[in-house]
Amino acid sequence: AREAAAANPDDVDAQTLVADLDMVGGHVEDAFNRLIELVRRTSGDDRDRAREHLLGLFGAVGNDDPRVLKGRQRLASALF
Prior knowledge:
Elements: H1 2-7, H2 12-24, H3 28-41, H4 44-61, H5 66-79
Helix pairs in contact: 2-3, 2-4, 3-4, 3-5
């Protein structure tokens, strides 16, 4: 999965899969960063899919977590 994501940096399916693996492995900030950068690089439906997946990860971690607060700020920056 990581090789596929590295070979296809704008592939939403590959990147969300690795972000999920990062989450399971406890690498929450890596997962957030991966998807924030994907949102930054993509547009249209791909961008929306990446953003929605990231919002789901934020919800799984919890809105009061400082990593989520920082991630939301970075996401806003990537969107605008």
